[in-house]
Amino acid sequence: MSSQDIPEENLPAEQGAAHGAAGHGGTAVVQRVDEDPFHDPGLPAHKPRIQDIDERAAKRSERTVALLFTLSMAATVAFIACFVVFPVDKLVYIWPFGRVSALNFSLGWTLGAALFFIGAGAVHWARTLMSDVEVADDRHPIAASPEVKAKVLADLAAGNEESGFGRRKLVRNTMFGALALVPLTGVVLLRDLGPLPERKLRETLWDKGKQLINMNTHEPLRPEDITVGSLVFAMPEGLKHDDHDFQIQIGKAALMIVRIQPEDIKDKRELEWSHDGIVAFSKICTHVGCPISLYEQQTHHVLCPCHQSTFDLSDGARVIFGPAGHPLPQLRIGVNAEGNLEALGDFDEPVGASFWERG
Amino acid sequence: MSTATDTKRAERNAPAGERVADWADGRLGIYTLAKANMRKIFPDHWSFMLGEICLYSFIIIILTGVYLTLFFTPSMNEIVYHGPYVPLQGVRMSEAFASTMEISFEVRGGLLIRQIHHWAALIFIAAMMVHMMRVFFTGAFRKPREVNWLFGFLLLVLGMFTGFTGYSLPDDLLSGTGVRFTQGAILSVPIVGTYISMFLFGGEFPGHDFVGRFYSIHILLLPGIMLALLVGHLILVVYHKHTQYAGPGRTEKNVVGMPLLPVYMAKAGGFFFLVFGIITVVAAIATLNPIWSIGPYRVDQVSTGAQPDWYMGFAEGLIRVMPGWEINAWGHTLALGVFIPLLIFPLVLGAIAVYPFIESWVTGDKREHHILDRPRNAPTRTGFGVAWLTAYFIMLIGGGNDIVATHFNLSINAITWFVRIFFFAGPVLAFIITKRICLGLQRRDREKVLHGRESGIIKRLPHGEFIEVHEPLSQGDLFTLTSHEQYEPIEVGPTVDENGVERKVSLVKKTQAKLSQGFYGEGNQIPKPTAEEYKEITSGHGHH
C-alpha cells in the first residue's frame, strides 16, 4: 500500500513521548514539568469512600446487599407460588395495563424481581464494599517480535521443504483442484430444495368458463350482487379452503371486483373486458405481492397497505403512487347461461411481483 | 527430601476446592489460565457496558429460545383450531401458528418466555447498534481492533437475519406478509430470482416448507455462526485488553482500571441479572406481536399498519420510497424499483464495515491505538457517523410512513417525498452541522486550556473594567484536554523535482492526499494549544 511510505515525522508523536512517560510519580515526569505545561500528572490518588473509612457505613452497605439478595429469594418463592396458584386462563384488571393474564403478569414481575435483585445486590456490593483502587496494567504489542517471526517463517519453510509442497507442483495443484471441486457435491445436493420455475408464475387457476366465487359466501357471484362502491373478493370455482395447495393457488388467483359506472371507465380495454361496469383485477400487488385491500369508492383508487402503491381502477389499474412498477392485471369476465359471472380466460400476464422472465 | 514429603502432606491436607482445582489443573492447565486472566484489569466507563447488554441479551435469547423449541411445532400442516382462545376456534391455521397459540395460552409461563425472547431480540440488535456507535465515535475500531470490528459487524447483520427468520416462524398474518415481501424482493433479482424463490420456498409461495426451513436456519445455522463469532469477539477483547479514555496516568502502554476478580465479576455478573430482570418485567407488561389478534397467515389477506421488527425498518423504508422503475426489454423484466433497494441495503451496511480500513489508509497510521478519541477530536469521522445514522433514521421514517401519516395527520405522499429527498440531503446536512459542532467544541477545549475555566466571578479592575475571573485547570484536565493526537494532512508534494523533471504521482496517492486534507487539513481540525502559547498567556503578558 502506498501509505507505507509516509514519513514518520508526519505522524503525530506518541502520547508518551509528547508528554513524558506517564508513571506514578516517576522521576521522568518530574524532570519535564517545567518544559511541558501539559504533562501527565500520573494516576490521581485514590479517594476513599465512606465505607472505606467508616465501619458502620460498611455494615450498612453489607445489610443492604444482603437485603437485596434476600428479596431475590423471596421473589423466587413468590414465582413458584404464582405458578401454582393462578390458573392459566385467569384474566384480571390492573391499572394502567388493562385486562391482563394474572399468571403471565405475576410470573413476569416475580421472575423479573428475582433476577433484578441478584444484579442489584452484586453491583451494590462491588460499588460500596469491594476495593475501588484503580490499578494500571502494562500492554504489550500485539505483533510478534522479529525473532519470533523469523522462527515461524523458518518453521514454515521447513514444513514446505519436508512436504515438498512448493517443489512438487503437480501434487499441490491437483490437491487444490480436488478441494475446489468437492464442495460442488454440496451445491448439487441442494438441487431438490424446489422445482424449477417453468410456467408456474405465469398461470393461475382462472380459465375460460370458471365462475367467480364469492370469498365470503362461497356462492357464485351474480352481477346484481355487486353494487357501485362496494369491493368484493372472489376465487375461482373449484378451489376449496381445505385443498392442499389452497394458499399457493389463492396467492395467484385472488380477485377483487368493483362496479364502476361504464362512462367513468377511462381505459378502453378495461371497459371491453368488464361486464356492465363490473371490473375484476388481480388482488396481488405488482410490487412485491401483498394483497391489496383498501378501496376508495369515490375515486376508485385502491391502496396496498404494505408499501402504499396506489392504483386507479377506473383507468386500467394504472399506478398513480408508490413503488409498484406496472398496473394490476385485469381478468376478462362475462356472464354465463345461469346469469353468474365467469372468467373468459386466464390473466393475459403474470400476476404479482415482477420477475426476470416476466417479459 | 523432607520438602517433598511436606508438599505431599500439604496436598493431602488441602481444602476440597483446591484439590478439585489441582485435579483440573493437571488436565486443563487452569492455574496458568487464571494467572493471566483472573486479575485482568478492565477500565471503567458507562459506555463500556453497552457491549455487555448485547452479550447478555444474546444469552437470554438462547436460554428462552431453547425453552420455546420444547413446545413449538415447526410445521405448515394445516389444522383447525380448537384451543381455548375463543375468537380463533374453527379457524384453519398451520401447526406452527397453533403451537404458538398453545405456548401463549396453555403452557404456563409460555407467553412470558415468548415475550422475553422477542423483547430480548429487539434489545439485542438495538444494543449492538448503540455499542457500534460507541466503538465508531471513539475510534475504538483502529489497529489492532479492525478484525474485531468486522466480527461485531457480522454479528449485527446475522442478528438481523436471525431476528427475521425468528419472527416469521409463528406463521401469523403479519410475519407472513413480511415473508411475502421477501419473496417478492427475491423475484426481482435478475436471471436467478425465480430459481432462488422456488428453491427457498420448495416451489411456489408460500408452499409448505418455509417454516421448517427458517426454523433450522433460526435455531441452528445462524445462532451457531453467531456464537462462534461472539466467542472470537470476546477472546479478542481480552487479548487486546480494553481501550480506555484519555486521562491522567492513562497511556497507550497501559490499561487502568479495576481487576476482573472481584470487581468486574460482581459488576458484570450482576449486570447480567439486571438486564435479564428488566427485560422480564418489560416482557410482562408490554405485549409484543400478539399473534392471537393478528391471526394466522393467509396469502390473500393483509392488515393495515403492517410493520416489520424495527431493525428491518430501514430495508422496509428503501422498498417503500423507491419509485417503481421497471425496464422491459428483449422479453425480460428488470424490476429496478425492487432490485435497487435490495442492492442499497447491503451497500449502506457495508459502508460501516469498511470504514476502519478507509480511515487507516487516509491517515497512513500503522500504530496501535488503545486511547479512545473524543468524538469532537475526530470531526470528519464523527460527521460520517452522524451522516450514516441520519440516512438510517430517515429510512426508518420511510419504513413507517403509514404509521407516521396516521399518527401525525400527515399526507403519506408528502412523507414519502420527504424521505426520498432527505435520504440524500439529510446526511450531507448532518455531516456539515456535526463537523461544525465538533470544531466548535474543539475551540472551547482550546479556550479552556489557555484561559482556564469560567468561574462566574466578575471582578472590577481599578480603572473600571469588568472581567470574569478564569480559574486555571488542574494538571489532570490540562493533560486530558491536550493529549489527543492531531494528524498532519498528507501532501502529494511537488509534482516537479528540483531538476524540473515531472514526478509521477499515482491516482491512489492523490486520492489519499485529497482525503487526508479533507480529514485533517486546514479548517478541518483546530490546532491544539502548544506549550509556548500556554506559557505566553500564563506568564502574565497575554491578558485576554
Automatic annotation (TrEMBL), chain A:
The UniProt keyword set, sorted, is: 2Fe-2S, Cell membrane, Disulfide bond, Electron transport, Iron, Iron-sulfur, Membrane, Metal-binding, Oxidoreductase, Respiratory chain, Transmembrane, Transmembrane helix, Transport
> What InterPro entries does the database record attribute to this sequence?
QcrA_N (IPR045603), Rieske_2Fe-2S (IPR017941), Rieske_2Fe-2S_sf (IPR036922), Rieske_Fe-S_prot (IPR014349), Rieske_Fe-S_prot_C (IPR005805)
Does Flavoprotein appear among the keywords? no
The protein's location, in the record's own words, is: Cell membrane
Decide whether keyword Disulfide bond is in the record: yes
Q: Enumerate the spans annotated as Rieske domain.
A: 273-342
Family matches, as Pfam families: QcrA_N, Rieske
Entry's Gene Ontology molecular function annotations: 2 iron, 2 sulfur cluster binding; metal ion binding; monooxygenase activity; oxidoreductase activity, acting on paired donors, with incorporation or reduction of molecular oxygen
Segments of this protein annotated with the region Disordered: 1-26
- Where exactly are the transmembrane stretches of this chain? 65-86, 106-126, 170-190
Q: How does it assemble?
A: The cytochrome bc1 complex is composed of a cytochrome b (QcrB), the Rieske iron-sulfur protein (QcrA) and a diheme cytochrome c (QcrC) subunit.
Record's family? Answer: Belongs to the Rieske iron-sulfur protein family.
- Name this protein carries in UniProt: Cytochrome bc1 complex Rieske iron-sulfur subunit
From TrEMBL, chain B:
Write the signal peptide boundaries. Answer: none
Q: Which sequence ranges are marked TM in the entry? A: 48-72, 116-137, 149-169, 181-202, 214-239, 268-288, 334-358, 378-398, 410-433
- Localization per Swiss-Prot or TrEMBL: Cell membrane
GO CC annotation: what is one? plasma membrane
One GO biological process this protein is involved in is:
respiratory electron transport chain
What Pfam families does its record include? Cytochrom_B_N_2
InterPro entries attached to this UniProt entry: Cyt_b/b6_N, Cytb/b6-like_sf, Di-haem_cyt_TM
Q: Does the keyword Plastid apply?
A: no
List cofactor names only.
heme
Q: Which GO terms describe its molecular function?
A: metal ion binding; oxidoreductase activity; quinol-cytochrome-c reductase activity
Its placement in the membrane is given as:
Multi-pass membrane protein
The reply to whether Transmembrane helix figures as a keyword in the UniProt entry is yes
Cytochrome b/b6 N-terminal region profile domain sequence ranges: 20-246
- Which reaction is the catalytic activity of this chain? a quinol + 2 Fe(III)-[cytochrome c](out) = a quinone + 2 Fe(II)-[cytochrome c](out) + 2 H(+)(out)
Assigned keywords, A-Z:
Cell membrane, Electron transport, Heme, Iron, Membrane, Metal-binding, Respiratory chain, Translocase, Transmembrane, Transmembrane helix, Transport
The EC number on file is: 7.1.1.8
Which top class of enzyme applies to this chain? translocase
For this entry, the protein name equals Cytochrome bc1 complex cytochrome b subunit
Highest lineage ranks of the organism? Answer: Bacteria, Bacillati, Actinomycetota, Actinomycetes, Kitasatosporales
